Amino acid sequence: MTDIKVPVLGESITEATIGEWLKKPGEAVAADEPVASLETDKVSVEVPAPVAGVMGAHAAQVGDTVQVGAVIGAIEAGGAAASAPSPTPAAAAAPSPAPAAEPAGDLTLSPSVRRLVLEHGLNPTQIKGTGKDGRLTKEDVQAAIDAAKARPAPSATSPAPSPAPAPAPAAGERREERVRMTRLRQTIASRLKEAQNTAAMLTTFNDVDMSAVMEARTRYKDLFEKKHQVRLGFMGFFVKAACQALRDVPAVNASIEGEEIVYRDYVDVSVAVSAPNGLVVPVVRDAQGMSVATIEKTIADFGKRAKDGTLKMEEMKGGTFTISNGGVFGSLLSTPIINPPQSAVLGLHRIEDRPVVRDGQIVVRPMMYLALSYDHRLIDGREAVTFLVALKNAIEDPTRLLIDL
Predict the structure, then answer these.
(1) 239 and 319 share a domain?
(2) I need a surface site. Which of 39, 62, 106, 252 has the fewest CB within 10 A?
(3) What's the mean pLDDT in 173-199?
(4) What is the CATH number of the domain that holds 129?
(5) Confidence class of residue 101 from pLDDT cuts 50, 70 and 90?
(6) Catalytically annotated residue among 359, 376, 397, 404
(7) CB 286 within 8 A of CB 240
(8) CATH of the domain at 347
(9) What is the pLDDT of residue 141?
(10) Which residue range(s) make up the domain with 363?
(11) What is the pLDDT of residue 123?
């Protein structure tokens, strides 16, 4: 037997939580094939099989906290998975009943997938999974929901198919589901509360006319994608504009360490991206020297690998300033919370047509609210407003980004 041990997870990370077992005891395993998923403070990490063989007993269960180097299971090297005995001739000749559907309780579903399945009354065993080892993803379930909606209604001349019977809830029944918080969610909760307890947080707002940026995207998006093999989005403009504004107002890019203020001549922008287990915040390092194309490529790569669960620990460490785009989810306005030890976070929101006054005339413009939450211990209101105005000016006139105004 060969032990399966918790691998080294990164600097200063000494433990993790068993998030999911990807192989059951008795199943065949190939060398380097993922057998378990660990949840750390920042990302999910897959544990590869050290050798090929058959999965042995699990030494730790889902939800258990395990230390780096701890044995969580074993593999019988070179063994063969147990197989069902061959049927007797009589049994082979006799017609066999169709196998019953696997009960949903036997499937390993993530909390988000389980919630979606329950909300729409679906049978997860009838949905084809495209995740690792056939696991269901949110996209698989959503595709099944969309396919069901797209089916034509049965005609009056043909009988409607009988739906699979579902247990009817008792009258007045109220249901609850308890799901253990992931280590990532626990860490997010702890850090956000720490920020509120430590920083003197304040939020200031402004709005920005997105007409110029939207016009530039429309005019150059095809040429941009053809040349750089990445779509021209809004984040490239905002990161570039933020770097310029941070240079003009360095306190927003600084941090407090003990009784000292640390000022920086570089900008490492933490960009919140969506992952299966929640938001993660990888860092675009030295963004002040990047082109819009390089920024867009970096963020697109982060987004793809966040969904795949392949972001590295070191890619989410550090960061001097954060940009969070709640607008992609439809948010109109918010007060984002600082990511310690940073001193400020910029919140972007959805773009919507609103009436504004231009040259004495009421016109309709695509407007976005901006929110800057900052640590008032370090950043004065004048500096926060100056930063937002500089950012607003750069977005409303992107030529400023080119001629360094």
Answers:
(1) yes
(2) 106
(3) 80
(4) 4.10.320.10
(5) very low
(6) 376
(7) no
(8) 3.30.559.10
(9) 82
(10) 201-403
(11) 76
